Amino acid sequence: MTHALLLATLLTAKPPPDPRQDLLDAMVAELDRSMSELKLKENKPPYFIAYQVKDFDSREVGARYGALFQDISFHDRKLFVDVRVGDYGFDSSVTDELDFSISMKGTSYIPRKQGPIDDSPTALRTALWLVTDEKYKQALFNYLKKKGEDVYSVDDPKKPPSFTKEERVMQLGVRAPFAFDRDRWVKLSRELSARLSKEAAFFDSEVRITGDKVLRLHVNTEGTRLVTEETLYGVHVQAFTRAADGQLLENSRDWYAPTEDRLPGDAVIRQAVEAMVKDLLALRAAPTIDPYTGPALLEPDAAGVLFHEAVGHRLEGERQDNDAEGKTFRGQVGKAVLPAFLSIADDPTQRERAGVQLNGYYQYDDEAVPAQRALLVKDGVLKAYILSRRPVEGFLKSNGHGRAQANRKPIARMANLIVESKKQVSDAELKKLLLDEAKRQGKPFALLIRDITGGTTNTTSFGYQAFKGTPRMVYRVDVKTGKETLVRGVEIVGTPLSSINRVLATGQKEGVFNGFCGAESGMVPVSTVAPAIVLQEIELQRALEGKDRPPLLPSPAAITR
């Protein structure tokens, strides 16, 4: 074949078939069939159907005591089907707590919400058909029950519609390469776990490296046809020990990146693990501290968790109209809810901040709505909520925050919560402000909280509106000398509005806290960007101490190396 003929052949050759398109076409075909034919007797047919398939390709290696304990390769496809009866104004949708069909329908079989891992259009359509039938019957039951319940309810002219109308999305996303350097990660996990096992004071430890790729296909009756691919990698190192009084202590380091090459190098990880070991040994020897109320300086990681738990969750849309929720910020739009120098936004469109990759980045949420920056609080005044396709009074469009793990039902969730301040001071001024406030209050010391393992919050009406954080590296700062002494044995507790309105000032440097957040729709990747803050008052209660006796004999790993 001549060069000219070869070039002509290449130019006219069709691109290789894309199996994603075949699966998408199968989803559309079953969607169209359901919309045109699915109906039970004289009852209403569906007015809206959405299909979502998530293909999970996962790798994980894990080591303990210098040996490999996990070497996993996993492939799965999950189905989510949303069938709605009624119309956008009033439909069959209910919260999980009010899913009337769960206890009364009496079904003896629940279809599996899995799709074929073979690229079989017929098998996929069959799986969707069975789940669609189940979801239509549930939706019809709930719709009729809601209509009946509505007889006893007073009309609310301010009640928002059931579902938002959104523009269709048409995008066949680019392929995301997925590599996993198993040899590198096996070697490193063995090495690091062997290092940790040498510490006689540590009774357990683990090193895990994960790689996950998610292919998502979404179609709905509004015309959306969406395919996206995302990858996320993680390195996780954790060790456990006990203090002399039996208190369980842990320390960890975590790194996340959207591609394998963005993870830190082995030398950086080794150095961080050595610092982790040093901190945990120091924590083990640290004295306990009594419950405390007074001023505290929270460095960026700890400040980010505080804003996430105390403010972020309470601004999620579904919590504003649910009678089971405390509705902390309902009806507060346009009113001051934070100090006037603070602003908060949630922005899933930001891929990185100050060179750090953000876990909460995405292009489209799990309802196929484009990700959008949501300005929540501006100069202390509440402006909006974090919104899915379930409307909130005054907000009839989603801002692209409907999120869920795997095939769970999406609700409004945080993504990249970003805290900004107009009252910034240097690190030295921040510490001085902390000590001055402690002196003013007549306290012999203040607290410095360097990092935090995470937190929980209660947003429901069936309990106190409170949050709790688990600080790890807490220092008592002497008011007279400024000396910092590591202490242990306390947890942060408080009521959200009281705590967050006691911020006196913030630092100039912002930090990024990457992790995963669990709520009703499962675990989703999130980030919080925040500066250090000085709180006029924080309350710390005694942590669960634990009086368990440590292992009686030394670890074989420690005595044989």
Structure description:
The protein is α+β, with helices and mostly antiparallel strands and 561 residues long. Among the domains are: 17-58 and 74-172, no CATH class; 292-542, no CATH class. It has eleven helices and 22 strands. It has helices at 3-12, 19-37, 101-104, 121-149, 182-197, 266-285, 300-312, 318-321, 427-440, 496-500, 556-559; strands at 46-64, 67-85, 170-172, 202-220, 225-242, 248-257, 292-298, 342-346, 352-353, 356-357, 374-378, 381-382, 402-403, 411-412, 416-421, 424-425, 445-458, 466-478, 484-487, 490-494, 503-519, 522-542. The strands form four sheets. Strands 1, 2, 3, 4, 5 and 6 form a six-stranded mixed sheet that branches. It is globular.
In short:
The chain is 25% helix and 35% strand. Strand 21 and strand 22 form a beta hairpin.
Key features of this structure:
single chain, alpha+beta, 5-stranded mixed β-barrel, 35% strand
Q: Rounded to an integer, what's the Rg over CA atoms?
A: 27 Å
Q: Given the structure, what is the number of helices? A: 11
User: Percent range for helical residues?
Assistant: 10-25%
Low-confidence stretches: 457-465
Oligomer: single chain
Inertia-based shape:
globular
| Class from helix and strand fractions | alpha+beta
Mean pLDDT: 90
Tally of strands: 22
Strand content: 35-45%
Span of the ends, CA to CA:
66 Å
Write the layout of secondary structure elements.
Layout: H1 3-12, H2 19-37, E1 46-64, E2 67-85, H3 101-104, H4 121-149, E3 170-172, H5 182-197, E4 202-220, E5 225-242, E6 248-257, H6 266-285, E7 292-298, H7 300-312, H8 318-321, E8 342-346, E9 352-353, E10 356-357, E11 374-378, E12 381-382, E13 402-403, E14 411-412, E15 416-421, E16 424-425, H9 427-440, E17 445-458, E18 466-478, E19 484-487, E20 490-494, H10 496-500, E21 503-519, E22 522-542, H11 556-559
Parallel strand pairs: 3-5, 7-17, 15-22, 16-21
Antiparallel strand pairs: 1-2, 1-4, 4-5, 5-6, 7-22, 8-11, 8-15, 9-10, 11-12, 13-14, 17-18, 18-19, 18-20, 20-22, 21-22
